[in-house]
Amino acid sequence: MTAQRLLLFSVARELFALNLQEVCEVMEPQQCYPVAGAPPHYLGLINFHGNLTALVDLAGYLRLKSRPLPGKLLVIDTRLAHLALKVDAVGSILDASSITGASSHDDPLTEALLETPQGNVRLLRLETLLSGLEQELQECAPNNAKPGGT
Amino acid sequence: MDMSQYKALFLSESREYLRTIAEQVVALEQSPGERSAVDALFRGAHSLKGMAASMEYGDVVVVAHSMEDLMARVRDGAVAFDAGVADLLLEGVDLIDVLLKDVEQERPSALPTDDYAQRLAIYTPAPPKEKRGARSEPSPPAPDLPPPPAAEAERAKEPAGEAGGTVRVKTELLDHLINLTGELVTNKQRLLNIAGELASPALNDAISETAKLLRSLHDEVMKVRLMPFEAISDRFQRSVRSVAKKSGKEIHFELTGREIGLDRGMLEQLVDPLNHILRNAVDHGIEESGERERAGKPVRGTVRLAVSRDRDRIQITVRDDGRGMEPATMIAAAIAKGILTPEEGELLSPRQALMLSCIPGFSTAKEVTDISGRGVGMDAVNAAIQKLGGTLGIESEPGVGTTITLRLPLTIAIIHALVVQVGQVKAAIPVNAVQRTVELSRRQIETMGKRQIFQLDDEAIPLLSLNRVLGLPLGRFPDGILPLFVTEARGRRVGIVVDRLLGQHELFVKQLGRPLAKMAGVAGGATLGDGEIVAILDLAGLL
């Protein structure tokens, strides 16, 4: 169920994890450019080694309370997506052997609730996150263009 | 001996042979007497068998050998080339295609090749049907038909090898080359910005020279990436054949311009739209044979797919000699569906009326068939073509036929785009979607019902706000001048008001990947000279 090594991070005072293999880089916040018509948690586009990458505020997407921190950017493996997640802070890398317990969770985005020495951690399913973001974009069709130039 | 290093070469050459065989089978069905095509088919199967044997892929050998044997019987006159032979050979092509996928994935195959071989070995043609009447046509080629394409195809289809000054290059390398060229174009814009600030004539000269060299490099790289249209055309021949068979119609299919080169990135994206247009032409454009006879037309309908190139544009036309479309019927249907008001219908030109078929959900066909999936596609076709930076046009004459014309740029990687400001956001619109830009005084705006319009070339053009479409705060325009660009949406010209027109830029288009690639109305992204990233809007998906 769980990967060998997980990357721990925090969003809105909650601890989350992603499979370390799904993350290719942790970055400092950088200049991003807004995308017209995207939902509000899309902070914009960043240039990640030439890839135009969507920057999503994870707290906003999860409807958690965003904190006014500069935060960090988790860039997802570019073979999987062109996506970076803005999180509040990035913690340690957790070896699967140090997980002391795991339970399932109703939320399809959460693969498991893990008990770890750092506390309870929600392990996220990246594929579900990506599909959810895509579905949301497909559903938020452009506004009905009404006449009027002013 | 370890043959694995030759596997990629074997797969690519085998697929080229399969494509040739499939094309020639369909061509031979149209002109069964073409001796050179029979020979070419025989040789194709023989070469495929030889290559597979040297690689020790026994299943492929069995299938190719049976096809070769059957073609030998055709060549020797023991069996006539009929629809049964064509079906068997095409089945063999499909079978080998699956076997090649197994080889590629290095998985064992469980396909029943012996059964196929046995059916070919015992194949005898069905006795000829009795003629149904004097009007039945043994061979009704139209007077202006070009010579059968089979022999020509054979000449063009010898798989390219290292001989004759050509080399095989991995497609990833070609993609990398265009990416590097694109990054250089972006960097040139950056240099231009810096030069603008420094006002140095020497720097300007150097950038101007670099720009010329870049243009040459871009042109050459694009040439390398071009692939002949025939790389995808066999699917169309088979698709037309299959729809004709299902709908019980006799169709003569012609393809010209198979040698025309298109960007490989674009070719794959043309398959579905063209397939849809062709299937529609056969299923709905061409009449039933009885109806054609009554109209004094040949029983056999003709569908022509033609590809041509005019400098840096590609033109693809699909022309049928079917029933055509009636603009008045299209307008009446649109009014009945609430898409148009009767007043709006009166304003439409015949060309605009035909373009109504590209509006989602619009359809005038009386019945749905499972062949072309009627009515659920021309809007998607139009959107796909616009996404490629192209345009779709429809011409039709009732009783004579319909022509659908696609005009496409040679490349989709580097485009010219109009950059606009809307609210705090910049966005780019490919210039081929922009008919013209206008700076409109408020006094020129009129109100028609609930709409605001302005007059351009004696045409009332409705105004839309791009800010509103994108959910952004509306512009204020304190000087009373509204910048806008004119484009075509749903068959009509519209004026799209923006906050500012920022000028034309040469952009290297990048795909956005997951998840933003799913966003309606966005075709990709690009970096401007100052490093700013803009989304490239797909107006067809947005409006």
Task: Give structural attributes.
heterodimer, A: 150 residues, mainly beta, OB fold (Dihydrolipoamide Acetyltransferase, E2P), six-stranded mixed sheet, five-stranded mixed sheet, 11 strands, 43% strand, B: alpha+beta, Four Helix Bundle (Hemerythrin (Met), subunit A)
**CATH fold descriptor of the largest domain in chain B:** Heat Shock Protein 90
The low-confidence parts of chain B are 130-163, 366-376
Provide the low-confidence segments of chain A as ranges.
143-150
Architecture of chain A in CATH? Beta Barrel
Amount of beta strand of chain A: 35-45%
Task: Say how many strands of chain B there are.
Answer: 18
Helical stretch tally of chain A: 2
Oligomer: heterodimer
Q: How many structural domains does the protein architecture of chain A include?
A: 1
Shape of chain A: globular
Please identify, by name, the CATH architecture of the largest domain in chain B. Answer: 2-Layer Sandwich
C-alpha Rg of chain B (nearest Å): 27 Å
CA distance, first residue to last residue of chain B: 60 Å
Contiguous helical run count of chain B: 17
Q: Into which percent range does the helicity of residues of chain B fall?
A: 40-55%
Strands across the major sheet of chain A, in which order?
Answer: 8-1-2-11-10-9
**Outline of chain B:** flat
Terminal Cα span of chain A:
55 Å
CATH superfamily of chain A: CheA-289, Domain 4
